[in-house]
Design a protein that fits this description.
By secondary structure, this protein is mostly helical. The protein has ten helices and three strands. The chain has a three-stranded antiparallel sheet, with helices on one face.
């Protein structure tokens, strides 16, 4: 677990770092701690560091800063940073989750690891880490979206086309359903998405369609 060495960070408390890499499905099977408390802390640290950067380097309004910050701390953005950091092979999940280490889990663990860095090394080291991992994406103007449904709607408005989300299937027990949704533009299927709620499935379908239109 030396993925932080390239940032000149050496975590002494390996147990805490392992906790940050542990999903609840694993902790339920092995009676150990998971990343959720560390994620809570890391989320707050991340918001503060990105807010501090935007305040000191942008001349945009409060509302614009809030919107811009949201795009760089959203799930898609955090999953992108996680791939660059390289901790994904070390994530611990339960047997039922092995084939589904999704962006939600990866994003949560990114924040949990930041929580560990903050606890052991302090705010300045955490800030330096985020400055190397996150801030370059802000400087480059990389685009991460939190609401693909709105983005897709805006992209087709000028075309005067109709946009519709159609639930095509739902499966699983009442407490753990999986929904599949198609997004159709002028009755043609442009994307498909799955999710644990209809809202999540619609967002994933919109994401699929938006990225196809962007190609």
């Amino acid at each position: 677990m030396d993925f932080l060495k390239k940032y000149e960070i050496e975590i002494e408390n390996k147990d805490l770092l392992l906790e940050a890499l542990t999903h609840s499905s694993y902790s339920n099977e092995h009676s150990c701690n998971n990343y959720e408390r560390l994620e809570y802390l890391g989320d707050a640290v991340l918001e503060l560091i990105v807010s501090d950067y935007l305040f000191n380097n942008e001349t945009i309004s409060e509302g614009s800063m809030t919107k811009k910050r949201a795009s760089y701390v959203c799930e898609e953005a955090l999953a992108t940073y996680a791939k660059e950091v390289g901790f994904i092979p070390f994530i611990r999940v339960g047997h039922g989750q092995l084939d589904n280490i999704n962006d939600t889990i990866v994003a949560d663990i990114f924040e949990a690891i930041l929580g560990v860095i903050y606890l052991e090394k302090g705010f300045e080291v955490a800030k330096k880490y985020i400055s190397e991992v996150v801030i370059p994406h802000i400087k480059k103007g990389d685009v991460f979206l939190t609401d693909y449904k709105s983005a897709l709607q805006e992209s087709i408005q000028t075309d005067k086309k109709t946009l519709e989300y159609v639930l095509i299937s739902e499966s699983g027990p009442a407490h753990d359903k999986t929904y599949v949704v198609e997004v159709r533009i002028d009755d043609m299927i442009f994307g498909k998405g799955t999710g644990k709620s209809k809202k999540e499935a619609e967002q994933n379908a919109a994401k699929d369609a938006f990225k196809k239109r962007a190609k």
